[in-house]
């Protein structure tokens, strides 16, 4: 069962409770969030549905959680339901359901490719919340942040657009390599937002401010060194996007050390992608390819892959590219800890286990490439 499946399962439990007359809610939520348990939680997944419904039902959250728990315990695939904190529901899957979830997850990534994690959750946002002004002469970090926020919003179905003030985009100084030249051949088609000049009488779009509402991108602090003069293009973007907008850009020294242990998160992510590509090439030389035929014990990697859609949605909703960057680092670390198990060792013959691990490695590489593309960073297959 994937997080999307579990979300629908919880919604069905809500509908049953309303139909049974024990949950007096007039309007059902359109969706509920299912995510990894937070500190203090337990199980495989958790949801705050009971807290979400407590006020409309005029009931304590834990009472709502008990109502939902009764209707989730008989769901095939769910082994245990615990209530923690003020009313969080913690779901533990049966072993067979957990194995099926891994298979469905890898299958989904292979089917959706670099667009895995894209959705339409923000499609209904009004234009004034997704229309951004980019002042002519804006500092490089502000340009990078604003364009990346637009790309993230578009990945979640929002009709985001960019308004260039005072001068056409062609006259604007560029930072490093343009995003369309760093995109991989099969990268998601997130186009550079079209420049639109405000017409007389049109609604005024304000420039992003530190305490601005949701319809403006966050204003970044100025860098404390000349990023473009010190770093290559990919490292420039990472130095600006990896910190939160209210933090200064990353120090250049670690970004110039091309090693996993040098504190260079960008290199770790790109290296992990290159390793995934290398595993596919090496497996082809050995005469086998990826196929998720049996369960693979890689809980950290599977969890990071399963979390990716939720991370993209949160990064878009909160205008926070740094959330995606941190997630890619966690995914890369999980993959690099797993990659040594993929290929046969010595005289060992390729088996269903190797094919399944290779399929999981391929999925990890795909998600890393898709995330890097949204940040405007390249995903090399050789390092």
UniProtKB/TrEMBL annotation:
The keyword ATP-binding applies. Residues 269-383 form the DALR anticodon binding domain. It is an enzyme of class 6 (ligase). One of its GO terms (biological process) is arginyl-tRNA aminoacylation. One of its GO terms (cellular component) is cytoplasm. It catalyses: tRNA(Arg) + L-arginine + ATP = L-arginyl-tRNA(Arg) + AMP + diphosphate. InterPro entries: Arg-tRNA-ligase, Arg-tRNA-synth_N, Arg-tRNA-synth_N_sf, DALR_anticod-bd, tRNAsynth_Ia_anticodon-bd. It comes from the Bacteria. Keywords: ATP-binding, Ligase, Nucleotide-binding. GO terms for molecular function: arginine-tRNA ligase activity; ATP binding. Residues 4-93 form the Arginyl tRNA synthetase N-terminal domain. The keyword Ribonucleoprotein does not apply. Residues 163-221 are annotated as: Disordered. Pfam families: Arg_tRNA_synt_N, DALR_1. Its EC number is 6.1.1.19. NCBIfam families: ArgS_rel_codon. This is arginine--tRNA ligase. It comes from Streptomyces thermolilacinus SPC6.
């Amino acid at each position: 069962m994937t997080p999307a499946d579990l979300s629908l399962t919880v919604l069905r439990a809500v509908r049953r409770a309303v139909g049974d007359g024990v949950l007096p809610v007039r309007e059902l939520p359109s969706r509920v969030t299912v995510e990894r348990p937070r500190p203090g939680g337990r199980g495989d997944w958790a949801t705050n549905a009971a807290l979400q419904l407590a006020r409309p039902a005029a009931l304590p959250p834990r009472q709502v959680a008990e109502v939902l728990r009764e209707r989730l315990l008989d769901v095939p695939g769910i082994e245990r339901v615990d209530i923690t904190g003020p009313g969080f529901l913690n779901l533990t899957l049966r072993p067979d359901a957990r194995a099926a979830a891994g298979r469905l997850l890898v299958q989904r990534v292979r089917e959706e490719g670099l667009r895995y994690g894209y959705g339409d959750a923000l499609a209904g946002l009004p234009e004034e919340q997704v229309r951004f002004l980019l002042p002519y002469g804006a500092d490089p970090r502000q340009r990078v942040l604003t364009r990346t926020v637009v790309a993230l919003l578009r990945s979640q179905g929002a009709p985001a657009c960019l308004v260039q003030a005072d001068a056409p985009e062609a006259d604007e100084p560029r930072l490093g390599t343009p995003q369309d030249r760093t995109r991989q051949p099969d990268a998601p088609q997130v186009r550079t937002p079209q420049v639109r000049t405000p017409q007389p009488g049109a609604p005024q779009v304000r420039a992003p401010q530190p305490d601005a509402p949701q319809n403006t991108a966050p204003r970044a602090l100025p860098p404390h060194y000349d990023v473009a003069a010190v770093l290559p293009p990919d490292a420039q973007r990472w130095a600006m996007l990896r910190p939160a907008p209210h933090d200064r850009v990353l120090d250049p020294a670690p970004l110039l050390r091309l090693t996993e242990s040098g504190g260079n998160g960008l290199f770790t992510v790109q290296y992990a992608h290159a390793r995934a590509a290398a595993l596919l090439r090496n497996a082809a030389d050995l005469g086998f390819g990826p196929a998720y035929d049996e369960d693979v014990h890689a809980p950290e990697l599977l969890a990071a892959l399963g979390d990716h859609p939720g991370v993209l949605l949160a990064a878009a909703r909160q205008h926070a590219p740094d959330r995606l960057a941190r997630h890619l680092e966690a995914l890369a670390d999980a993959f690099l800890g797993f990659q040594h198990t993929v290929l046969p060792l010595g005289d060992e013959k390729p088996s269903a286990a190797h094919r399944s691990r290779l399929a999981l490695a391929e999925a990890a590489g795909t998600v890393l490439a898709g995330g890097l593309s949204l940040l405007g960073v390249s995903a090399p297959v050789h390092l």
